[in-house]
Amino acid sequence: MTATADQAGDDPAFVLVGAHPSLYLLATLGRRHGTRVERIPDAAALARWLVAAGVLPTAPPANDADLMHARQLREAINSLMRSVMSGRPLGGEPLDTVNGHAVRPDVPPQLRVEDARRFVTPPRAADAPHALATIARDAVRLLGGPQAARIKECEHPDCSLLFVDETQSGRRRWCSMDRCGNLVKTAGYRARRRNAD
Ligand SMILES: [Zn+2]
Q: Of 20, 41, 69, 152, which is least packed with CB atoms within 10 Å of its CB?
């Protein structure tokens, strides 16, 4: 999986940018610096999103408590990532929230065999709390590893999505060229395009 392997889910309302489940979760709240776009407005949307993000194979039962926990986890991860980006110390409630989800059982891998082919898949019985634990663990690994230094915010003024810049040059500027790089280009900022990947 690479940072540029942004992919569209089945639900066009979902934005899967960042190539990490934790970054996908952050992208469920768009335009943080303006009029915010909530992409998981209810528990049913959360269930659909967990499938679109590839965390679960089928939509789990999800209730309002799951939705509240998902949004709390999202904001905690957002807080920690932006602290890392600006060099602020990490701690307090966001750290407790992320670690609190990460310590719970996550979605376990299951070996599935079809004919002669083997697959690693999530079990069908995994539910929303398992999925949030998987996402929290992804955030823990990302924030605790060397990739944390490469977390960036998209430079498009209307976009607040975060991504991991895995380019050698470290000069990636857009969450994705399709979403924002080309928009800026067509808006007349052709000179800036030269530095985009
Ligand atoms: Zn963007």
A: 41
